[in-house]
Amino acid sequence: MKQCIKVWTEDSVAKPHVIVAGAATWSIKIHNGSNEALSQYKMNITSIAPLLEKLAKTSDVYWVLQDPVYEDLLSENRKMITNEKIDAYNEAAVSILNSSTRNSKSNVKMFSVSKLIAQETIMESLDGLHLPESSRETSAMILMNVYCNKILKPVDGSCCQPRPPLTLIQKLAACFFTLSIVGYLIFYIIHRNSHRKNKPCTDLESGEEKKNIISTPVSPLEVLLQSFCKLGLIMAYFYMCDRANLFMKENKFYTHSTFFIPIIYILVLGVFYNENTKETKVLNREQTDEWKGWMQLVILIYHISGASTFLPVYMHIRVLVAAYLFQTGYGHFSYFWIKGDFGIHRVCQVLFRLNFLVVVLCIVMDRPYQFYYFVPLVTVWFIVIYVTLALWPQIIQKKANGNCFWHFGLLLKLAFLLLCICFLAYSQGAFEKIFSLWPLSKCFELKGNVYEWWFRWRLDRYVVFYGMLFAFIYLALQKRQVLSEGKGEPLFSNKISNVLLFISVVSFLTYSIWASSCKNKAECNELHPCVSVVQILAFILIRNIPGYARSVYSSFFAWFGKISLELFICQYHIWLAADTRGILVLIPGNPMLNIIVSTFIFVCVAHEISQITNDLAQIIIPKDNASLLKRLACVAAFFSGLLILSSIQEKTLSS
Q: Distance between CA atoms of 41 and 23, rounded to whole angstroms?
């Protein structure tokens, strides 16, 4: 062994990329487990340690610790190979190789995982000495992961993958957040000292306090610094959880109980916390928040349980995603139709609230924008809705005012939108040409192409249109006073309400039966865009036709609904792990406690980010158009700088 290693240390000789070495068992057997053999073993290890260390500078060198034996199964000529002797030889190898360098850590790696595997599987050995084939395969797989993952960097390989180096953009972000934290601390200290100087004084004669100053409102600068300070600390937690290899990750293993039992728990809690709604209109604010809340909780359970492998659950979750987009079409159409506010302030407010967290995570976590696919989806659909309704002629409720001509004009607009959707859905080439143009390609490419974006968009291509059409029909019926939306009143007459309820329940169950009988995902996904609206409309009618159902809502679900977007995005890194492919482990060895603690932190962080986003939106997006345009110019310059830095980084990596 020494001679072989010595040859590899010569500069002119081609060296292996990986060297796996180990010895002990034969020494114990040949010398009958004598102490003199152990002393000689130590001398031999000491003599090759410098050579291994030299070789480890250019190659990956692993010293394999000897596996334990199952002494009861050993043959008579192997009885001297005891676990006590093996442990002594392993301790000698570790101490000598780790101390072979005086001033720095040894470059020779101890491959101890095979020993750990053997401790669990040696009982399955046929002779008590040699491990079963499965154990050797596992050790080999881990060894290959150690070498291959750091080169290939697969998206699903968190095991044995080194922490990625910080990019220039990440370093600049770290500096920005550090300065924000320092700035806020300085501001807080100065503000506190000035407050102490102006604190109330006491009148010695009357014993009454006299206030020298009136408390002033919190300044925008303080809110800005405080928000970025909190955001910086939160982003540090994000990075530690999913980039720094500080915490362990575990795989998902789907079972029906891991998905359905938590669903039952949250449904019981949701029903328990119910309150009366402030208004009893169809899809009122409390009801839509409730809808978003329970859907988001179900989606979270779906993700952490790995339920995507069970097709019926997958298809029903696809309906929940479609329902979110349905609400996007319904909500934005209703706002523009009723308010007629097509100003730039409204557009910027919506785009900021949708994209702020994702943009920050793209910078801090070094992820592409398309990685958080749902946010690009709702962002693009909002822009589509805005453009459709804002383009000439602008048709709003005040202008239409029951006039069939204007209603027909709006329907023509919607028909043209549907035509464009159909064209892009069945013309992948045209779709990819549009979104492959710079700078759109920077936002919508994933792994060098926009196929993933086309697939995601195409899955729910009609549901936003359905939401807009439903909003138009509902608001038209409401304007003509066809609906009865009083407290406790059914939405229609008793006869019509009962018929619609029956049709809705049958439709709802029919869709579930069809989704459960699907043969494969490809077949289901092809039909999903056309039929998902059946279950969505059925749910809306079941939830809103009975007056008593429309008059109450679950405050538990509504609370989660208000932070549903933040929950969806934050789960990627601080609840799940390895970019959603695993589960974050904060407390190893106790899965239940780990889930409780990580979930509590995850929900608190999502709520705090929601508050930060709302605070920053009020400051960064002013109502004055002149100031807003200046800030938009600054934002454009900021993103241009990001694109330039990104291009420089890509060129550096490629070279």
A: 9
